[in-house]
Design a protein that fits this description.
Layout: H1 3-33, H2 40-61, H3 69-102, H4 112-136
């Protein structure tokens, strides 16, 4: 690709990422405004939205020069945490949907806090391993 095509792709990335961030912020604000009415499904979707917001933040960092190690590492860390946690949340949402459809149990909602801690832990752990690997191969 020539430099003009790369610039067009970078501009498209920034525009679509900006729109994505606006949508994610709208969903987060809506959730916070109506958190007193939040259902288990709303909590799960909101957790996925937060993961996507982290990933979108990494996309915004891609416009800065990549020769700066701090920006490159921050972008990689956010991208890794966002992607991993989003994948974990999709699995949790799929499993929860299946379990609720086959055997409805209101008490499953109590597991949200534990799931959040577990997903945050593993996402941060994987990102830390990734950043450590980057620094060791730099």
């Amino acid at each position: 690709m020539n430099s003009e095509q790369q610039n067009i792709l970078q501009i498209a990335n920034i525009i679509t990422t900006g729109l994505s961030i606006l949508g994610e912020l709208f969903m987060i604000i809506s959730y916070l405004k109506f958190s007193h009415k939040a259902t288990y499904a709303m909590k799960l979707v909101n957790a996925l939205v937060v993961s996507d917001l982290l990933y979108s933040s990494a996309n915004i960092l891609s416009i800065f020069p990549q020769d700066l190690p701090s920006i490159c590492v921050t972008e990689g860390f956010l991208r890794q945490v966002g992607a991993d946690s989003a994948a974990f949340w999709v699995v949790v949402i799929s499993y929860s949907t299946y379990k609720q459809a086959t055997n409805f149990d209101k008490s499953r909602e109590k597991s949200f806090g534990k799931l959040t801690c577990l997903i945050c832990f593993f996402s941060l752990l994987l990102a830390a391993v990734y950043v450590n690997w980057i620094f060791s191969n730099w």
